[in-house]
Amino acid sequence: MVTLGELVMILDLARQGLTVSAIARRTGRDRKTIRSYIERGLEPPAYKPREPAPSPLAPFQAFLRERVARFPELTGRRLWREVRDLGFNGGYATVTDFLRAVRPPAEPAAFERRFETPPGRQAQVDFAFFKVHFEDEPGAERIVWLFSLVLGHSRMMWARFVARQDLATVLRCHVAAFDAFGGVPEQILYDRMRTAVLGEVDGRGIVYNDKLLALAAHYGFVPKACRPYRAKTKGKVERPFRYVREDFFLAGRFRNLDDLNTQFTQWLDQLANRRLHGTTGRIVIEHFAEERPTLKQLPAGPFNAVLRLERRISHEGMISVGGNLYSVPDGTRRRPVEVQLTAAEVHILEDGRLVATHPVLEGRGRRRIAEGHRTLPPTHNSATPRAGATPPSAPPAAAGAAPRSLAIYEAIGRRLAAAQAPR
């Protein structure tokens, strides 16, 4: 193949009257080549398309197709991390370009108006619904709820999976979130969930749960309910739910609720709160470091508002609170007892006298027997752990017994032999 400069020279020599053989000798080209270029003239040469180089993603395309087919909502970031774990060393854009070709495009949504809040001004709280199959309970489908509290300015998120949406759980999650943030925002925006907002009364406006108001008074924030049928007012907390579901929860494997929260906390600390936020354009944890000084200081004392319940003692000496069982001491009469539930503890009272205190158990179906509540040892097939119990060990020596020399037993043997000898 000749260059454009050589082609111009060949055509110029032909116009000067040189023969094909003379032009071939001067250029060092074959006569057939010279003749063909003279006949073609200045027509641009035709080049064959270059064979495409093999994509570094080719060995992983079948895996990505299978994942997208089973879980179409998985994020590109999540899938990029998964193929990197399998050995892919290419970039994020290579994966997303392939995903655009194999994933159906999302339907265009209506435009929304976005508003930003100043630092320390507002947080948003909500629950999201999840179904999960725990490996410790094969074949059973469980429902769990994700409580999330997101700071409106920095988008810093604290969240935890819980077994229920009751008031005690809501209060306990608030306390844990404030402790994690090291401060409290001025306002917290709620959807009209029953544990927070009881409804509206003419002339009084929105009525909040008394215990939530006690929590707000203790920590110094103002509860605020979003307007009815305006759930998008809480977009800062609801949009992350989709992110959690697609980037963490889908296709995950979890042994139980504790393992789910352990993995989720690791994901929050290492990925979610360290990502470049798409709206603010800031690293979330760095943005939060600027917002944190504007939060209100934590109160000096703990929040100890009490929820009072009445429960009956079972034949096993247990009471049920929130789907979990807690022990009472042996000898407690089988009659209704009062239960005082705080954000962190369960107090059991008989005739106004405190008989047992337990830490609140997370999840459902768990049992706790406090130390000293049972005078009899557990049966050999008991699966209920006892608080403060120690593994069985060798029985201790009798009190006052001292080790004896072997000479004592030898002397005793001689005496017995002499006594039995014939006289």
Descriptive account of the structure:
- It is a single chain.
- 33% of the residues lie in helices and 18% in strands.
- The chain has 423 residues and is α+β, with helices and mostly antiparallel strands.
- Helix 5 crosses helix 6 (92-102).
- The chain starts with a helix and ends with a helix.
- Mean pLDDT is 83; it is low at 229-235 and 390-405.
DSSP helix fraction: 25-40%
Strand content: 15-25%
Specify Rg, calculated over alpha carbons.
38 Å
Structural class category = alpha+beta
Element pattern in H and E: HHHHHHEEEHEEEHEHHHEEEEEEEH
Overall form: elongated
Q: Quick one: biggest sheet?
A: 5 strands, mixed
Subunit arrangement of the protein: single chain
**Order of strands, widest sheet:** 3-2-1-4-7
Mean model confidence by pLDDT: 83
Number of DSSP-assigned strands: 14
From the N-terminal CA to the C-terminal CA, the straight-line distance is 133 Å
Number of helices: 12
Low-confidence stretches: 229-235, 390-405
